[in-house]
Design a protein that fits this description.
about 300 residues; disordered C terminus
């Protein structure tokens, strides 16, 4: 990577880490349905003019059916799940579960696409999923309160979202191979908007949300979704998908930092250990790092 690429990678991680902060600041006043609807609608307004400018609107029409599937699985349902989770768990904790997305992507590729994993990647899956289970078991509970049913359902929502991301990544490989990335990004947001906007209208909050909630929702839509997609696909074009995906390892650090700075959220030892285990497993499962092979024994004459 060049210095510019590294700066873009850190900027993208900071923006996506901020998405968990903005959800925490706006989900309670808007509710999950309205917030998720605003997010995809705002992102569509950013991406659609770019698509038209690039002359790729005809491609979007050609692939509208698979794009609708990706829109539901990669945006509508995950954004709704994370917006719900923001009501009950910290921004840092939600981002740590989000960091497990490549684990589910690799596992689904193995089960569905019969992609070979190898020993190192299989070990990574085992380590990563152990971290997810351990962190979930530590934070979930079945008693009333912050660490009770609300936290349990929020964690389940985060895991559902990462499963959706994993499915969408593999479905995109099968159904949208060769489709320009901007078409995939724009089409998925439009498809998600078609699903979420009617629900957002139905569940629109009775009271007027505060200025802070509106600003947070706007930044979530325009910056953390629309602009972030453009930045992400620009990175893929310059450094490749395998390098761009390393942003996943950096997002929790920024999300925890923003949560601590603006919301006073603590980083517990369990969260730190869980994050380290999940990121280690993810790095192995994605092939970003490989388990060292033992050196061959020297033959004695």
């Amino acid at each position: 990577m060049t210095r510019r690429d590294l700066i873009d990678l850190l900027l993208l991680a900071a923006i996506w880490g901020g998405s968990f902060l903005f959800m925490r600041l706006s989900a309670a006043e808007f509710g999950p349905f309205a917030l998720a609807g605003l997010r995809v609608a705002g992102a569509s307004l950013v991406l659609l003019p770019l698509l038209v400018q690039q002359g790729q609107l005809a491609v979007l029409r050609q692939y509208w059916q698979p794009l609708a599937v990706v829109g539901f699985a990669n945006s509508a349902l995950p954004f709704l799940c994370f917006a719900y989770a923001a009501l009950h768990i910290s921004a840092g904790l939600a981002s740590i579960f989000n960091a497990a997305t490549p684990l589910f992507t690799a596992a689904i590729a193995w089960l569905w696409l019969r992609e070979r994993l190898g020993a190192s990647r299989s070990l990574g899956l085992a380590i990563g999923f152990a971290g997810v289970v351990g962190l979930a078991a530590n934070k979930a509970g079945f008693k009333p309160g912050v660490e009770g049913w609300g936290a349990t359902l929020a964690i389940a929502a985060c895991i559902t979202a990462t499963l959706c991301y994993g499915f969408a990544a593999n479905y995109t490989r099968r159904a949208l191979a060769g489709v320009p990335p901007l078409v995939s990004a724009t089409g998925s947001q439009l498809g998600a908007a078609a699903v979420l906007l009617p629900l957002a209208g139905w569940f629109w909050p009775a009271g007027l949300p505060s200025a802070t909630a509106w600003i947070s929702a706007g930044l979530l839509a325009v910056l953390c979704t629309g602009v972030a997609y453009v930045l992400y696909f620009r990175l893929i074009a310059r450094v490749g998908a395998s390098n761009a995906v390393t942003v996943t390892f950096l997002i929790p650090a920024f999300a925890v930092a923003w949560g601590a700075l603006f919301l006073g959220e603590p980083l517990t030892l369990a969260m730190g250990l869980g994050c380290a285990v999940i990121v280690t497993g993810t790095a192995l499962a994605t092939g970003f790092v490989r388990w060292p092979r033992p050196a061959p024994a020297l033959r004695r004459e």
